[in-house]
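This part of the workshop introduces the protein records we will be handling. A record pairs a protein's sequence with a compact description of its fold. Comparing a sequence with its tokens is the quickest way to learn the format. The record below serves as our worked example for the rest of this section:
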Amino acid sequence: MRVFWSKGYEAASLNDILSATGLSKSSLYATFGDKRELFLAAFEAYRRERLQRLEAALNDGQPARLSIEKFFRQGVAHAEAPEHAYGCMTANEAVELAPHDLDIQQLVTEDFQAVEQAFARAILRGQADGSIARDKAPRQLARFLVVNLQGLQVMARAKSQRALLEDTLAVMLAALD
């Protein structure tokens, strides 16, 4: 997963994959069939883990606005670590493969929708607990958060300055008030 996440599908060489997995070429092909099938398995694992982390962050027992804010602030801090500076694998594949691969386009769309649903549930909870303004449509706010999440991930991968990311985050979070 990390090879595809950091290099992208096209740039990930067979040698990179063999080195990362410790498999021989014959074992890799016997297990996964080909590079694409291995990629699809890795991408699915990434999507599943990411959604679990998001759900856990958004349902941490805190008021929803605080949970959302903590999630985004942790993401910005996380992106500064060199071993995590890959951005979002979904955003990466949305740019690299989705424009010309309908299967990947569908997976990216499903991932964005799942993240949107998680945010929408958190926003509804926040509107109920009083931590998020009630005058805004939860689904629209959720979509806004998805777009901002992807934009922040791309900016983090591009090594944007932390202050710039924090400024962006402040404006984005103000939309919840």
